[in-house]
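Incident log, support desk, overnight shift.

02:14 A customer reports that sequence design results differ from what the structure should imply. Their input is reproduced verbatim below. On-call engineer (initials T.W.) acknowledged and began investigating.
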């Protein structure tokens, strides 16, 4: 009898927990952070997964967006999307489409260079240097596919991390028309390529090339890595920065740094932030909304600022529609001018905003406010 009673209690408790779990499952909803599709590549001879994260108001707009290609996407896709979302929402960079390339075929080292140290010992990449194939994949298969699916423009950044920085460097010094922003994480500079030159020497040569297209490049390394590298690695970072003091190219923005108190892959958060800051520096991305608000014609001033920014970068950049608790946006400006009693100017900014975001319900609701 005691055994039966105990079993009844256990079954009753299990049933209660099961019902509670079922109710929890009913109340749960998945949070989407992006899309995924498979692209069959004739060049790579395999199917590659592609991750996509679109700006939150992509469906409200009609303009095109720059893209950020992220290698090692299973590790870097979400953090890159989050950093870009926050920076763009604060007018520190344009809203962008994030394109992730995960290693679903387990071939990370295919992207590695054949690199050796000063003693001729292979570091990694022996027999697996297919970085050029990935550039061909981008140019002939990935980008045309993206163009057919999304509104992308010529603004293209690539992020690679040891060892997937192979295509990043390969593009910077051999196919510089493919990307205009380069971010290298967990980098190596003192290692020698198959040409006999070190990575640092090849980077310096490309930066000094007066025919190199306008670009920005960031190279970062964790200080913890230097504890396991020969002295020549730290020396390579110092010398590269020193040489560019006198031999810099005004067409190329750059930053090369060793990040303190970070480890090999842990530096990626700071590295991505600093890399995007290199491509979109504050000196260009101070958006003077207070000056816009106080100007005689705010709509004209906003458009002129972003037209000039677009001309500088060579691709379309537009003001953001709205943001998280920030007035420095189109919708925030409409409301601000309304509170100032400047109804005419408020309407003009609203009309400008609707040209950029014609499908925005929020902007359409502001039509009554601007009357």
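02:41 Re-run completed on a clean worker. Output:
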């Amino acid at each position: 009898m005691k055994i039966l009673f105990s079993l009844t209690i256990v079954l009753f408790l299990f049933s209660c927990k099961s019902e509670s779990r079922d109710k929890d499952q009913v109340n749960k909803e998945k949070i989407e952070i992006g899309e995924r599709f498979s692209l069959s590549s004739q060049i790579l001879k395999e199917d590659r997964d592609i991750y996509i994260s679109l700006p939150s108001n992509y469906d409200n707009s009609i303009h095109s967006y720059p893209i950020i290609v992220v290698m090692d996407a299973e590790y870097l896709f979400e953090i890159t999307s989050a950093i870009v979302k926050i920076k763009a929402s604060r007018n520190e960079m344009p809203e962008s489409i994030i394109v992730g390339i995960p290693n679903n075929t387990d071939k990370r080292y295919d992207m590695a260079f054949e690199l050796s140290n000063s003693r001729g010992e292979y570091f990694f990449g022996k027999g697996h240097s297919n970085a050029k194939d990935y550039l061909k994949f981008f140019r002939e298969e990935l980008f045309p596919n993206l163009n057919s699916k999304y509104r992308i423009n010529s603004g293209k950044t690539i992020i690679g991390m040891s060892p997937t920085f192979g295509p990043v460097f390969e593009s910077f010094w051999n196919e510089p028309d493919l990307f205009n922003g380069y971010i290298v994480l967990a980098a190596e500079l003192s290692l020698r390529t198959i040409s006999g030159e070190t990575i640092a020497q090849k980077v310096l040569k490309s930066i000094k090339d007066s025919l190199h297209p306008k670009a920005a490049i960031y190279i970062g390394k964790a200080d913890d890595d230097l504890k396991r590298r020969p002295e020549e690695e730290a020396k390579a970072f110092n010398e590269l920065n020193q040489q560019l003091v006198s031999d810099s190219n005004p067409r190329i923005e750059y930053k090369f740094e060793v990040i303190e108190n970070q480890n090999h892959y842990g530096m990626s958060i700071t590295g991505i932030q600093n890399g995007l800051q290199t491509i979109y520096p504050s000196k260009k991305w101070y958006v003077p909304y207070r000056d816009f608000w106080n100007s005689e014609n705010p709509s004209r001033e906003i458009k002129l600022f972003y037209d000039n920014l677009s001309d500088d970068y060579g691709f379309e950049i537009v003001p953001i529609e709205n943001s998280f608790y920030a007035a420095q946006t189109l919708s925030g400006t409409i409301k601000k001018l309304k509170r100032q009693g400047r109804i005419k100017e408020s309407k003009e900014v609203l009309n400008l905003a609707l040209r950029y975001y014609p499908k925005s319900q929020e902007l359409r609701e502001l039509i009554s406010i601007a009357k």
